[in-house]
Amino acid sequence: MLVDSHCHLDFPELTENLIKVLELMHSNEVACAACIGVNLEDLPRILSLAEAHSHLWATIGVHPEVTDGREPTITELVELAQHPKVIAIGETGLDYYWQKDQPEWQRERFRTHIRAAIEAKKPLVIHNREATADILRLMREEGAERVGGILHCFTETWEVAESVLEMGFHIAISGIVTFKNALTIKDVARRVPLDRLLIETDSPYLAPVPYRGKLNQPAYVKHVAEEIARLRDISFDDVARATTDNFFHLFPQAESRANR
């Protein structure tokens, strides 16, 4: 059994073929997926998906790239997090690739999400692009280790991974690990403790080899697990079992309902 810890099933590219996407998940033994929120306006769409399918879960947050939506408050995020299918706060974090002036509003939004997660007692799903120093600094300043969570689509060095692990967070590896020249990520995938490792697709983006450049979907998380197994010289079943156990350990709410 596999779990896709980060996907965007509510995006049009996937919803227009949702039945086929879910069928392919099933045939590839992907038993569960987390559908990640990126703004408040589209949250009802994500919640509807999670409510309609017992093996889909939701997160709530406003992505650091979003500049034209409603700004979240701590109170609103905490209230939304009470929904029975919401397992985490995020996608949140910092992105200095698209926001090159490193605006303070982005950092304040990240603080809001961390504070809401602590109040709601929910883990965080964190996005980082070219903002590592500030990500780690704000995580420490706001006490993010109190709730833990995931550094999703991890692309940093092992030294950064160690800092994240010291704060009790999990590291999620995406299809990038299958790319030939992704040497830094391959190194991290070899070295992350197996009990702190997660896998994801970030679909519809970042399709792994052999689908690179095509539309990604949760079923393809299998190829991420296969590459990690190859890199670590362990069995595919070991990777599948560990990453699935880690997901349910981090999100016991999902495990308790999955076992009903």
Describe it for me?
The chain is of the alpha/beta class. It has a single domain (2-258), classed as Alpha-Beta Barrel (TIM Barrel). Helix content is 43%, strand content 17%. It has helices at 12-15, 18-27, 43-52, 74-80, 104-120, 132-142, 158-166, 183-191, 221-232, 236-250, 252-258; strands at 2-7, 30-35, 56-60, 86-95, 124-129, 149-151, 170-173, 197-199. It has an 8-stranded parallel beta sheet. The longest helix has 17 residues, at 104-120. The mean pLDDT is 96.
Strand content is 15-25%
Strand tally: 8
Q: Class by helix and strand content?
A: alpha/beta
Q: CATH-wise, what's the superfamily?
A: Metal-dependent hydrolases
- Gyration radius from CA atoms, angstroms: 17 Å
Termini gap: 17 Å
Key features of this structure:
260 residues, alpha/beta, TIM Barrel, 8-stranded parallel β-sheet, 11 helices, globular
Concise synopsis of the structure shown:
It is built from 11 helices and 8 strands. It is α/β, with parallel strands linked by helices and 260 residues long.
Layout of strands and helices, then pairs:
Layout: E1 2-7, H1 12-15, H2 18-27, E2 30-35, H3 43-52, E3 56-60, H4 74-80, E4 86-95, H5 104-120, E5 124-129, H6 132-142, E6 149-151, H7 158-166, E7 170-173, H8 183-191, E8 197-199, H9 221-232, H10 236-250, H11 252-258
Parallel strand pairs: 1-2, 2-3, 3-4, 4-5, 5-6, 6-7, 7-8
Helix pairs in contact: 4-5, 5-6, 9-10, 10-11
